[in-house]
Amino acid sequence: MSETTGASYAAAGVDIEAGDRAVELMKEWVKKTQRPEVAGLGGLGGFAGLFDASALKRYERPLLASATDGVGTKVDLARRMGVYDTIGHDLVGMVVDDLVVCGAEPLFMTDYICVGKVHPERVAAIVKGIAEGCVLAGCSLVGGETAEHPGLLGPDDFDVAGAGTGVVEADRLLGPDRIREGDAVIAMASSGLHSNGYSLVRHVVFDRAGWSLDREVEEFGRTLGEELLEPTRIYSLDCLALTRTTEVHGFSHVTGGGLANNLARVIPDGLHATVDRSTWTPGAVFDLVGKAGRVERLELEKTLNMGVGMIAIVPADSVDAALTTLADRGVDSWVAGEITARGEHTTGAELTGDYAR
């Protein structure tokens, strides 16, 4: 470019027209997420998303809950595979399943997509996945932002983040104060790795094992890439169904830090959660990561979910009803442990025994 030619946003790498095209392509998907509280209020492309708060009048004392998250380095796998319409499920799952831990019903989400270069169809595919995840979670996608960062990100690089808002009646708020000695710990199966630990996973399969994403893995019955890109299971509606059909004292969303660490976050002082490994067999992907990287079990367990994506803590006499509700909803679940008094040398939660084989 000649030094006498005036600078422009496009010459600097930002394509506003491509961004506008992306917005047009995503509108049909966002519309599919609309709850009654957002229907007819503005629309995609405004400066802010709207939600009709008069819907909260049915609550005696509504508490708003908020959460925000991303999907970490799993986005690198989506980029490598050229598959962009599943990563949004991961984003929604990471956000709404944090909200439901306190008993909150997810109401709406906003997203943030940062790209090196706007490819309209690619951005629309990402939003399609987010919208589909919102439908599965029962919440609306009311807005978001697509930012183009040339010079900071490569043309094919991107990242996603999101924030969600939910509501719970104050006297139905779930937390450590409800949990009692003798409660049962019910595990809900994960769909795979979900969206945590991918820095370790990528290091193991790419740097140590030298595998490619198109490698067929017999234990998976599909390629390595297809297994690693399996979307995060979204539990919010399943957990809310539990709260309607039986007594629930608490939930724990198993994300970064693993099962024991996340479960300990909802266990009150004086009590202890014991989870028996022999009650389930982790999926093949966890065994593969452990063996390929010679990763010690404790390291795996503090990094990956090991096959459990959500925990429900219920009174012992609510176990049968809880398991029936989850089975009716197609959620594989089982009694994995119990809540006991904390001993002198015990912490908030621990795993015991050996995994079933």
Automatic annotation (TrEMBL):
<dbReference type="InterPro" id="IPR036921">
    <property type="entry name" value="PurM-like_N_sf"/>
</dbReference>
<keyword id="KW-0658">Purine biosynthesis</keyword>
<feature type="domain" description="PurM-like N-terminal">
    <location>
        <begin position="60"/>
        <end position="168"/>
    </location>
</feature>
<protein>
    <recommendedName>
        <fullName>Phosphoribosylformylglycinamidine cyclo-ligase</fullName>
        <ecNumber>6.3.3.1</ecNumber>
    </recommendedName>
</protein>
<dbReference type="Pfam" id="PF02769">
    <property type="entry name" value="AIRS_C"/>
</dbReference>
<dbReference type="GO" id="GO:0004637">
    <property type="term" value="F:phosphoribosylamine-glycine ligase activity"/>
</dbReference>
<keyword id="KW-0547">Nucleotide-binding</keyword>
<dbReference type="InterPro" id="IPR004733">
    <property type="entry name" value="PurM_cligase"/>
</dbReference>
<dbReference type="GO" id="GO:0046084">
    <property type="term" value="P:adenine biosynthetic process"/>
</dbReference>
<keyword id="KW-0067">ATP-binding</keyword>
<dbReference type="InterPro" id="IPR010918">
    <property type="entry name" value="PurM-like_C_dom"/>
</dbReference>
<comment type="similarity">
    <text>Belongs to the AIR synthase family.</text>
</comment>
<comment type="pathway">
    <text>Purine metabolism; IMP biosynthesis via de novo pathway; 5-amino-1-(5-phospho-D-ribosyl)imidazole from N(2)-formyl-N(1)-(5-phospho-D-ribosyl)glycinamide: step 2/2.</text>
</comment>
<dbReference type="Pfam" id="PF00586">
    <property type="entry name" value="AIRS"/>
</dbReference>
<dbReference type="InterPro" id="IPR036676">
    <property type="entry name" value="PurM-like_C_sf"/>
</dbReference>
<feature type="domain" description="PurM-like C-terminal">
    <location>
        <begin position="180"/>
        <end position="345"/>
    </location>
</feature>
<dbReference type="GO" id="GO:0005524">
    <property type="term" value="F:ATP binding"/>
</dbReference>
<dbReference type="GO" id="GO:0006189">
    <property type="term" value="P:'de novo' IMP biosynthetic process"/>
</dbReference>
<keyword id="KW-0963">Cytoplasm</keyword>
<dbReference type="GO" id="GO:0005829">
    <property type="term" value="C:cytosol"/>
</dbReference>
<keyword id="KW-0436">Ligase</keyword>
<dbReference type="GO" id="GO:0004641">
    <property type="term" value="F:phosphoribosylformylglycinamidine cyclo-ligase activity"/>
</dbReference>
<dbReference type="InterPro" id="IPR016188">
    <property type="entry name" value="PurM-like_N"/>
</dbReference>
